Amino acid sequence: MKTRILWVVVVLVLLASSVYFFRAQLSVAVAKRVAVSHLAADVPSELPEGLHVGLCGAGSPMPDEKRGGPCTLVLAGKRMFVFDAGNASSRNIGRMGFVHGRIEAIFLTHFHSDHIDGLGELMLQRWVSASNAAPVPVHGPAGVENVVAGFMQAYAQDQRYRVAHHGEATMPSSGFGGKALPFTLDAQGRALLLKDADLEIVAFAVDHAPVHPAVGYRITYKGRSVVLSGDTKKSAAVQRAAAGADLLVHEAMSTPLMAILQDGAGQAGRPKLRQLMLDIIDYHSTPEQAAQTARDAGVRYLLLNHIAPPLPLPGLEKAFLGDASSIYAGPIRVGADGDFISMPVGSHEVSAGRRS
Question: How many domains does the chain have?
C-alpha cells in the first residue's frame, strides 16, 4: 500500500513538473507572438479617420492607482500630439499601444510640477524609440524655455551614455530632448499655434491664479473638435472656447470628498497639510461647475480629468460627480488612465472605450 502511494506521489510530481515545463515553453511562444504584434502595430492607421483623445494621465498630484499625473494624447488623423506630461505619461502612452517616436509636438498648459514631472522621460523616449534626428517641439507659455532646458540638463549625461553605447547612426545626438517654443497670448487671450487645411490648435487663457500664464487648448480636425480646460476655476474663457465642441476634457475636484481629507489631516495633527488641502480648492473646478460649462457651451460629451481626490473605493465615482448629471444632460465620464474617445470625421459620433 505504501509503495503504491509513493508511486502515485512520484507520478503526480512528474506530471506537475511536465506541466510547469510546458507552461513555460507556451508562455515564451506566446510572448514572441505578442512582441512581434505589439512592435509592428500601427495604431493610428487602425483607427477610423478622425479626432481621437486618450488619457495618458487622468489624475492629480495625489497618489492614485488608476490615475497618473495629467497627460492627454490627441490623434488628428495619423498626427500625434501630447498635452501636458505628468509622471506616468511615457509608460501610459506605451501601454495604450502608441509609439513615442511619432509624437509630433508636446503642449504644456502651465508649469505646476504634476503637469511637467514626466517631461524629461517623455522627451527621451520620443528620441530613442524612433531614432529621431530632431528634438520634439515643446509649446508652452512664457517660461517653457527654462522648463525644457532644465530637463535637458538633467538628462545630458544619459544622452552621452546612449550615443556612446549605440552610436550616432542609431542614436543621433541631434534628436535629443526638446525645442522650447514659447508663445504669448493676444489681447483676446488667444494664440494660434498650428493651422493648416485640416488641423488647427489654439491656446487660450484660463483662470488658475496665482499661476500665470495658464492655458487650455482647442484642437479642431476636419470638423471635429476637442477642448482641454487645463487647470482652472470655472471660466467663461473655457465656455467660449468649448462652444459647439464634440468633446470637453475638463478638470474636476470634489469639494465634499476633499473635505474628508481636510478633516483627516486635522485629526491626524497635521494642520499645515489641512491648510494646503483647503487652499487648493479655490483654483480648481467642481464636477458640477464643469457640467455647467459643458451645458452652456453645448458640447456633446464631457470627460472629467485631473481627478481629485483619488477614488479608491466602489461608489466613490458617483459621490464624486455630485449633481453634475442633473446639470448636464449629455454623457459624462470620470476619466481614468487609458480612457479613449473617438470622433470619426463626417459624423457627430462620440464613442468612448479604453486602451490599456
Answer: 1
